[in-house]
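Encode chain A's predicted structure.
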Amino acid sequence: MSLNDFIKQLDDLVEAASHRFEDAIKQVDKEILEETRVEYLGAKSGKLKEVQKGLGQVSKEDKPVAGKRFNEVKNRLEELFQSAADAITGGSGKKGKVEALDVTLPGKRPRLGHIHPITQTIDELKDIMGRLGFSAVEGPEIEDDWHNFEALNIPLEHPARDPLDNFYLNVASTGTGGGNQLLRSQTSTVQIRVMENNKPPIRIVSLGRVYRPDEIDATHYAMFHQIEGLLVDTNVTMADLKYVLRLFASSYLGHDVEIRFRPSFFPFTEPSVEVDMRWQDTWLEFGGAGMVDPNVLKAVGYDPEEVTGFAFGLGVERLCMRRHGINDIRYLYDSNTKFLAQF
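Encoded structure for chain A:
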């Protein structure tokens, strides 16, 4: 092959490629751009690769000139491709600048996370009880026999200790009741820990997770949150308990909320009541309460002849459900972002 024939092939290649790249720019079409790049600059079957084969047919004397020209054409094709790519994506190419960004379009709002409704409820309940003079405290979720049962006046033979009603762990516990440690079944355990380390008067509230192997339905879950309140002082009466709970309920659920107290039994309070709230033409229990049992006071070294107290444990999920009109507790734990984004 003569040198002139080889150079003509290269020139024809540049001209044809130039037209193809111009078409891609006019149509602002990335697919045409990529097809043209592969067609002319493809490493295996590109047209430039085919022309390169003719370099071996050029005479030995003309090869330096032919090789130089080949490299110039290769660089030119790469420049054509880059210019077209810049033009299509907003840069400047042979046909001038192509606008790829419409600054008049509204901006995209960044996706923001949402505080979970349970967390919102806990924060608000802490604030309400704080205004009533209660300090927020915390306790461990893995408890021993003493704090979860024995100190709360729950004897060894009490059905509340049944393995079917608790999540026991394979770790030895302390206390005369023996047995293994467990995931706490109530936040009342925090009462004992606070009273063991502090003298009266006591006015605390504790919010946290508790665990019970309940059958999951619209109002029950195996893990849920409780708000535990405790007040120990001189001359504390049942009337004080009812006043605090009514004030608490109206502060969170509104002044039109109806609540009622029903006689009940809990080992750690005497007398004991269950607290219901009116919701959708029916009554829904949202906690238990009562006067601290003298045996509980004795267990922590208090003299029940000198001090009395009241305690209550309320379900945070049910308060949240009542507040927001949620009729199934499972919605709170489904991790449905569309649902959670409402709060």
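The longest helix spans residues 63-88.
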